[in-house]
Specification:
By secondary structure, the chain is of the alpha+beta class. 39% of the residues lie in helices and 13% in strands. The chain is globular, with a radius of gyration of 20 Å. This is Phosphotransferase.
Length: 332
């Protein structure tokens, strides 16, 4: 995907980065050694073939001067910490990190090299119809099981993985919503609603967030497209940068409960270990989907989108979620 946040580099710079990470003897000789992996929305990623033939992945954060959402500041460091937590505290497969460079000496951003996972992207392969229905269903159940194991990791506070957190989930989630609304106000995005109306809806239902009393590691962005599958099994979970300590019901695999375009979550829920939600749990889940819809709208301004597809989708979903939470638009 195209985005102003993608920090692309020349082959000369890539050679210097490879030399620092793997040694000068692994710097490729020719020029056809790096291929951009274009599927992501935020960071730039390259699949790189080292001189000895090994393949690795280089991930580079956005340029220092490019505006990003508040939640995206320092996000690569969050990803590295979550990959460490998941690899050390669970059996969930994540790529091995080979080298981290936070110095900004060669590139004006954080970056790291990790192993290349030789497998198919689960979500994209499924969408292309290249997997049987039984394989897709089993894969979604396995994804739910893996996600549940990640959620078993307990955090020291609610909210950000790194830095100061909050003593309650209500406070942490309200801050997340507020940060995103302010991000939108900063760039003058039209949400289709006065931001204060959205604040009022969140406040009216915020008491349901008080049921969450223990901070758990929540990936937030664990879609099928952020996993790799080989021979019918999930072999890697990718893109951990949006994780927080909070409520497991915030996981992406449950989004289809509120936003039909994200697919039927039944198989994911079976692996995740839930079949039904209480009334308060359904309200919390709607609040999390509302948060996602607001992000989708606001980030179009920060990504420099040249069409309105994502923006229009976010607007429609936001209208539906606010209606489900009791706030219908005023018809003049």
């Amino acid at each position: 995907m195209e985005s102003t946040t993608k920090n692309r580099q020349s082959t000369g710079v890539l050679r210097r980065l490879i030399g620092r990470a793997y040694g000068v003897d692994q710097v490729p000789v020719g020029d056809d050694f790096a291929h951009e992996m274009t599927e992501g929305w935020f960071n730039v990623a390259y699949r790189i073939r080292l001189r000895d033939g090994r393949q690795v992945v280089l991930k580079i954060a956005p340029p220092a001067g490019v505006p990003v959402l508040t939640r995206e500041i320092g996000m690569m460091r969050v990803e590295l910490e979550v990959m460490r937590l998941v690899s050390e505290l669970t059996t969930v497969p994540v790529p091995r990190v080979d080298h981290v460079d936070l110095t900004h000496e060669i590139v004006d951003a954080d970056l790291f090299f990790m192993e290349y996972v030789d497998a198919d992207n689960f979500g994209r392969t499924a969408d292309a119809g290249a997997l049987g229905a039984d394989v897709v269903a089993a894969g979604m159940r396995e994804l739910g099981t893996l996600n549940r194991e990640i959620n078993a990791v307990r955090g020291p506070h609610f909210g950000p993985i790194l830095g100061a957190g909050s003593p309650s989930w209500r406070e942490a989630f309200s801050r997340m919503i507020e940060d995103t609304l302010r991000d939108g106000e900063r760039v003058g995005i039209d949400l289709g609603w006065d931001p204060d109306e959205i604040r009022a809806v969140v406040a009216a239902h915020a008491h349901t967030l008080d049921e969450v009393t223990e901070p758990r590691l929540v990936e937030v962005d664990l879609w099928a497209k952020n996993s790799m599958i080989r021979d019918g099994r999930i072999v890697a979970i990718l893109d951990h940068e949006r994780a927080v300590y909070g409520d497991p019901l915030m996981e992406a695999g449950l989004t289809g409960l509120d936003m039909a375009a994200f697919g039927d979550p039944t198989d994911f829920m079976a692996g995740f270990g839930i079949t039904t939600l209480t009334e308060n749990e359904r309200t919390r889940r709607r609040l999390y989907s509302l948060y996602l819809a607001v992000i989708m709208i606001v980030e179009t301004k920060y990504r420099g989108h040249t069409d309105t597809e994502v923006y229009d989708f976010g607007r429609r979903e936001l209208d539906g979620l606010l209606a489900a939470l009791g706030r219908a638009p005023v018809v003049s």
